[in-house]
Amino acid sequence: TAPDGQHSLSYQFSGLYEGLTLQEFSTVGLLDKAPIELDNQGHPARVPTRSPTQEYLGAEFGAEESWTQSPKKTWDQVLGEVLKQQSNQTHGRQTLQWRYGCEVVPGGLVLSWFQFALDGADAILFDVGNGRWLAAQPWAQAPCRWWEALPAFGRSLQRYLGDACPERMESFLRRRQERARRAGTGAQGSEGQGDWAVM
């Protein structure tokens, strides 16, 4: 059984662009604020071709998370092109950020999120409960319409964030609890969604 209390699992991606050229890309997975995997690369050719969750859990997770089997394709085609062009930010240095995850609070309520930001400012948010895309900036309305036209993608997100993400989080917590038991210590912690500054 996973430890009681408030716990969270989140994944964060950050890309530094010079114009439309991806200069740096980093990913991190966080379990109660503690990194469980980290991939910082200084060249776009090294952007991972599988999601960090798949890298950590193995091939059996691929079918459940098929909507994000290629973060590089999502990042380059959707963020690198659509977001920057829609915001008229096609020159200079910009930072694009993407994060998703879930949090289970006492009582069993699951909170989840899937969102994008440009230079630390919210751009696109997915309303998990209603399956709708919300534009936090006027220029983000076009990308939202693009995703609204892919209802299967939204349903996959809802299933992952509402079911698979909490299940995987419990799996991580059980592993951490077992390691702590063997080491003779008790590791506990909690985290909220935080802010873009932590990426």
TrEMBL record:
This is MHC class I-like antigen recognition-like domain-containing protein. Residues 179-199 are annotated as: Disordered. Keywords: Glycoprotein. The keyword Glycoprotein applies. GO terms for biological process: immune response. Belongs to the MHC class I family. Residues 5-178 form the MHC class I-like antigen recognition-like domain. GO terms for cellular component: external side of plasma membrane; extracellular space. Gene3D superfamilies: MHC class I-like antigen recognition-like. The keyword Glycoprotein applies.
